[in-house]
Amino acid sequence: MPNEFQPKVKGRLLDDGVSMFLEGGRVFEGWQDLSITKNIESIAHGFTFSYDNKFDDLKTQWPIKPGEKVSINIGTERVITGRIDRLDVDFSADSRSISVSGRSLAGDLVDCSVSGAKEFENITIVNLARELVAPYKLQVFTSVESKTLDKFALKPGETVFQALDRAARVAGFFWISTREGNIRLTRAARARATSQIHQDVNMLSGSIGFDESERFSQVTVIGQRSGLDNFPGTDATQATGTSFDRGVTRFRPFVKIAESSVDSAQAKESAGWETSNRIARGMTVKIETQGWRQADGSLWGINQLIRIKSNILGIDTELLSSAVEQTKSSTGGTITNLTLVRKDSFKSEPEFAKDDDLLSLLGGG
């Protein structure tokens, strides 16, 4: 039966039923409470599903096992391909419940340490990723022109994702999971969401938080690299790059030693990435909206520019969605929780404008 929150596009009802497909063709639906999470800063998406019904005659255990590969669909749309990490089953005289949680296939890259060659030379970020993820049978895609790293050394004990993330940050890129469970190298998007979120229209709740403690007026990255014939002299031995956050009006310098071999151009890109990430952590907007979909029927997603308007929060601007959680409960229906940051966050820029800083709006300024 359709309900008042079931989405429509041109009068057509959309299916928001959530299905878990197991290998072998088994399908589980009808979950009462669930959460599906995606985050720009995490290569693996997550899910948690639960079912509780004291009236069901569940006399046998459901054939769901930790480690099993699953596909998660919202309606007919695949949203996660992953594995079950955890299974909890409980029963009593008047209760039957099951809870399942897991992550996309890239979860193994978050957990497992690097192995094999300890140092690479003249390798692109994408080819480095293909080398490191080959044992996990994952494919590597890119939405950007992959940069070449002159040298990249693996650190003892670091995870595959830590190595991939370190390599991507040199060029101002980041990694995301695809719907099929593979990984993609990308950058902060310029694509806009098809819907806006307004306080008195489709915003259920909202909050904004500021933290200036980790922002600096200028960030300088210093790196060392071996001398090369085409990079002689100072540039070969003392690569330096600087980025400026004009929203920090007092003198607050920060110097960081590059985590891998860089030239001056890469040091500058790394400084821009470091500045933008600190800006992102310095201002966070959280919005709760009814339903999972935009006006055109597409799901709210990460890495989208979304216009947010709220008089109470003092916002009327485009922000970048850095995290999305789609939830369903027996009491709240379907809800999307968005975490948003400045739209120039997660970009590698030499300078970040003061005018884009929402901090200037505090107090009606």
| Class by alpha and beta content | mainly beta
User: What's the gyration radius in Å?
Assistant: 23 Å
Write the H/E string, N to C. EEEEEEEEEHEHEEHEEEEEHEEHEEEEE
CATH topology of one domain: Phage tail proteins - horseshoe like beta roll fold
CATH architecture of one domain: Roll
Number-wise, the strands total 24
Output mean pLDDT. 87
**Poorly predicted regions:** 1-13
- CATH superfamily placement of one domain: Baseplate protein-like domain - beta roll fold
Main sheet makeup: 13 strands, mixed
Helix content range of the residues, please? 10-25%
- Globally, the shape reads globular
Specify the number of helices.
5
How far do the termini sit from each other? 49 Å
Instruction: Using the coordinates above, name the CATH class of one domain.
Output: Mainly Beta
Strand portion, in percent?
35-45%
Summarize the structure.
With 365 residues, this protein is mainly beta. The chain has 5 helices and 24 strands.
Question: Overview of this structure, please?
Answer:
With 365 residues, this protein is mainly beta. Among the domains are: 8-104, Phage tail proteins - horseshoe like beta roll fold; 109-186, Baseplate protein-like domains (Phage tail protein beta-alpha-beta fold). The protein has helices at 107-111, 125-133, 160-170, 234-237, 264-282; strands at 8-9, 12-13, 18-22, 27-28, 33-39, 46-52, 69-74, 77-92, 95-104, 119-124, 140-142, 148-153, 174-177, 183-186, 197-198, 205-210, 218-223, 239-245, 253-257, 283-290, 305-310, 315-329, 333-342, 351-352. The chain is globular. The termini are far apart.
